């Protein structure tokens, strides 16, 4: 790999991290995100297990739609 392509790759990774960070900041303001019916929370003394099944299905559907719209040829 040439130095130029490594630099480009680092820039792309940086932009991706900024977008993911912005996504998490926006999602924190949505009160129902992560508390959908189908998200499993198991609480016990000293232990909490959280399995966000419904939330991850919703995120997967939204990302699939967005990426299909963006990369449609």
Automatic annotation (TrEMBL):
Alphabetical keyword list: Membrane, Transmembrane, Transmembrane helix
Transmembrane stretches, start-end: 9-27, 47-71
Q: Superkingdom of the source?
A: Bacteria
Extract the PANTHER family matched here: BSR5223 PROTEIN
Name of this chain's protein: DUF2905 domain-containing protein
Q: Which organism is it from?
A: candidate division WOR-1 bacterium RIFCSPHIGHO2_01_FULL_53_15
């Amino acid at each position: 790999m040439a130095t130029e392509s490594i630099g480009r790759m680092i820039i792309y990774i940086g932009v991706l991290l900024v977008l993911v960070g912005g996504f998490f900041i926006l999602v924190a303001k949505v009160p129902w995100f992560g508390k959908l019916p189908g998200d499993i929370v198991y609480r016990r003394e000293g232990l909490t297990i959280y399995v966000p099944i419904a939330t991850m299905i919703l995120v997967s559907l939204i990302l699939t739609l967005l990426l299909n719209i963006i990369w449609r040829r």
